Amino acid sequence: MKISTRGRYSLRMMIDLAQHYNQGFTALKDISKRQDISKKYLEQIIPFLNRSHLLNANKGHMGGYRLAKAPSEITVREILENTEGSLAPVSCMDNNPNLCKRCTECVTLPIYEGLYDVVTKYFDSITLEDIINRQVSEFTYNI
Fold this sequence. Notes:
The chain is elongated. A hairpin with a 5-residue loop joins strand 1 (55-58) and strand 2. The chain is 46% helix and 6% strand. The chain folds into 2 domains: 5-67, Arc Repressor Mutant, subunit A (Orthogonal Bundle); 75-127, no CATH class. By secondary structure, the chain is mainly α. A two-stranded antiparallel sheet has the order 1-2.
C-alpha cells in the first residue's frame, strides 16, 4: 500500500484544522501557508473531505473550514479512506462480498485479509487529537 500525495496532504490539512479547532473557521490560505501546500491543491482535496462530512465550510468575510467533529472523533482511517478510497491491499477485497471467482480457493487471500485487518485497526486507533497531543504510545498496534 502506498498513500498518495492527496492522502498525505489531506491528513496534514486535517491535523492543521485540529490544531486550530477552537479558533473557528480557518481560511484555506492560512492552512496553505502553514503546511506549505498550494492553495490550489487544497481546493482539490476539499470535495473529498466535504462529501465525507469531515469538514464544515463557511463562505464570506469570516469564511473558511473547520472540522465537522471534534479531533478526538476523527480517525486517520476515516481521512485516508475518504481521500484514497479503499485501503485494501488487493483489488479483489474492494467488494463485500468478494466477487473474485477464485476467492474461495485463493491461498493468498488470507494473507491480504490479515494485512488489511492490521492496517485498518492501526489507522482506526489514531485520532487527530492523538496526533496533535503527540501521544506516540497510542500509535503502537500490538500484533
